[in-house]
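Problem statement: downstream parser choked on a complex file, so we are re-checking the raw output for the glutamic acid run. The parser issue turned out to be on our end (a line-ending mismatch), but while we're here, posting the original submission so the record is complete.
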Amino acid sequence: MKSPILEFIQSLHARYLAVDEGRVADYIPELSKANPKAFGICVATRDGHLYEAGDTRQGFTIQSISKAFTYGLALEDRGEDHVLSRIGVEPSGEAFNAISLQEGSGKPFNPMINAGAIATCGQVLRKDGASRFDRIAEYLSRCAGQSLSIDEAVYRSESATGHRNRAIGWMLRNFNILDEDPDEILEAYFQQCSLRVTCTDLAVMGATLANQGINPISGERAIAPEFVDNVLGVMATCGMYDWSGEWIYRVGLPAKSGVGGGILAVLPGQLGIGVFSPPLDGQGNSVRGIKVCMDLARDLSLHLFNPSAVPQTALRLSYTGNQMMSRRRRPAMDFHYLKRFGERTRVLELQGPLIFSTFEPVVRTLVRHAPYCQQVVMNFRHVVNVDPVSMRLLAEVRSRLESNGIRLLCCHAQRFRRPLLAAGIPAGAIFDTDDEALEDCETFLLAGAAEVAGRSPDAVPLSECDLLSSLSPDELAIMEAAAETRAFAPRQSVIESGGDADEWFVLTAGTVEVSLPETGNRRRRLDVLSAGMSFGEMAFIDGSKRSADVIATEPSTCRVWSRAWFDSLDQSHPALKIHLLHQLSRQLSARLRQANLEISTLKS
Ligand code: GLU
């Protein structure tokens, strides 16, 4: 099946293929040889997928588009303050090649005009035997994800005719914006402008900026994340020559164009766009490139200031610990206690990226619920990333909850373990699964409960076991007599999945886990049973095989009845059998009710 997105990009290409406006740049003689009919469009997504139409693999010189990237390298080499002291960030309102510098200081207005770009080039350091240009070429190549080389003919042509840029270089030297004579810097500048790229390269370089500096195809860090917004900032205000204001108004994307006919545009966080078509308009921007970007922005609603792109709340679901309980099955008394007081546990399921505007509603919800809570669980299962601002807010929330005596637990959060620890969440409060976190909350609630505090959970007489507690002393005696006693060591198997289901167990001491094997050594936990609970009896009703493993997690004791004995009750003690079946159906209906509640909570 053909992608409708690819079809859209191709239709855009077809729409403007016949446009016959604009003129190929000729002030650098070699550029005038460009084919005016060449035309390519490429959109690169933040995860590295390319949509291409037309001449996307044809090489051309990057020209001014290089300026944005060299600016990033200069910031990395010298730091923001130093670079800002030499080169401003104000749109100049003058032509790209104007010999105009700020009055008094001689500072170029911004790094996107030639004066600023040459000064920027002078800020790049020579390092470890690599020349300025080597470092620039390497930096741009990392952004493109492949080694870019010079178009020698264009370079020689520009160097031979670049008198105006040389004049600018000497002016910068005069004002000590350049610390050394400009000859070598100018050559590096001419060379950087003569690097050959394709339309696809431009889109990938754009996607690298969109992806916080990591090339989405190679996965390599190409631009230090702290300078990505600086680069995009100057592109947004100064990237499109003397049409920058109109551009940001109409298209609304940080962009840079070059006289080679390329335009690179970026939707931060989302995608990069590369367009190539040599004929230029009066401002020096590719005529077709502008038309394509205007249509892309309008039809795909890419304008940066378009409110349809506003992120939604990170709060996916909010419920209490009695609406959703852990898989741990507990004796009836504990279960009823947890049904009653489980609302003191608040679970917040989060989703998407955590940034200020998505996390703020989560904080608001927490502030509202805190007075009624004893513990809060944050579930990170559907969180894709957490930015430093929301981590800071989380640290604040944690310390405020703590000073109000409220525990904060996190689950499905191993991916964020390091920042969570840094935010003050103790290692013991970070759980692999929501089930484990809920179980911990339940155990915590029970430990504080006066009703259950005195009772030893270790050994429960049959008369207190859930299914048997309403039997008469005579009936209990019959049960006692028929039961076999079995002891299990920790990690010993009690039941194996797939086996015949011909026994019914009541756990009178210890704990067993019901689970299924997963990949590797991991097991998926389905249930945890504590003393007083029964298991294995369901198969007596539907005759199925064992569907899971049951393993003791501590020294445990079970009382066991055989199916043959259970069947024989029809003849020997029918009243006892009816009683047992009645208890069984009561228990099943209670579990079904809880399951229904959990399903409706998850669906809400
Ligand atoms: N190398 C060109 C120059 O300095 C770049 C111009 C541009 O693309 O704006 O004239």
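For whoever reads this later: Residues 452-456 have pLDDT under 50 and may be disordered.
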